[in-house]
Amino acid sequence: MKPVLKINPVLLCLVAYVLLSMLFNGRVMATPSGANLLTACEYSLINGFQGIKGQMCIWYAAPCDCSYGEESNVPRVCLPAAVATETLVQEVIAGLLKQTELQAEEANVAAALILSPTYPCLD
Predict the structure, then answer these.
(1) What is the pLDDT along the chain (123 residues), one digit of tens a residue?
(2) Concatenated DSSP letters for 76-91?
(3) How many domains does the chain have?
(4) Has residue 111 been placed in a domain?
(5) Rounded distance, CA 106 to CA 101, Å?
(6) Helix, strand, or coil here: 106?
(7) How far apart are CA 58 and CA 89, in angstroms?
(8) Is the pTM of the predicted complex or chain greater than 0.90?
(9) Spatial CB neighbours of 44, under 8 Å, sequence gap ≥ 6
(10) 102 within some domain
(11) Of the chain's two ends, which shows fewer C-beta atoms within 10 Å, N or C?
């Protein structure tokens, strides 16, 4: 007779709790980098902004004017209503390819540094 593997339910719950805690505390899911954004946006231009990569690209390449606080390293970006998402994505891709050091930054910082000179907030 083959031995049966028995799982301790308390141990199983503990492992699940630790994994979920790490997930919600950001230890497992890191903020995407500028390099991740470049990959997602290049892919998305070809594939019509489908799936997770498309959503990620649009999220960071077409930022809202969010308040990050006075000491933020994320510049404000104010987009006019008429600017097309594809235009923004192309600008972000070009910026990431030209300023390769931005690929090491967080995606929101990299996109904002690229877009804020063209789309500044004037208030």
Answers:
(1) 554 435 444 333 333 343 444 444 444 557 899 999 999 999 999 999 999 999 999 999 999 876 665 667 788 899 998 999 999 999 999 999 999 999 999 999 999 999 999 999 887
(2) -----TT--HHHHHHH
(3) 1
(4) yes
(5) 11
(6) strand
(7) 7
(8) no
(9) 50, 53, 54, 57, 58, 89
(10) yes
(11) N
Which stretches within the chain are classed as H helix? 9-24, 34-47, 51-61, 85-98, 107-115
Cβ neighbours for 110, distance < 8 A, ≥ 6 positions apart: 33, 34, 37, 60, 92, 95, 96, 102, 103
Q: Rounded to the nearest 5°, which phi and psi values hold at 92?
A: -65, -45
User: What pLDDT is recorded for position 13?
Assistant: 37
- How far is the CA of 92 from the CAs of 3, 16, 17, 72, 78, in angstroms? 58, 39, 38, 20, 15
Separation CA 44–CA 47 (nearest Å) = 5
Residue 26 lies in a domain: no
**Which structural domain, as residue segments, surrounds residue 77?**
34-115
Give the pLDDT score at 70: 64
Q: What token pair was written down for 75? A: 């510049």
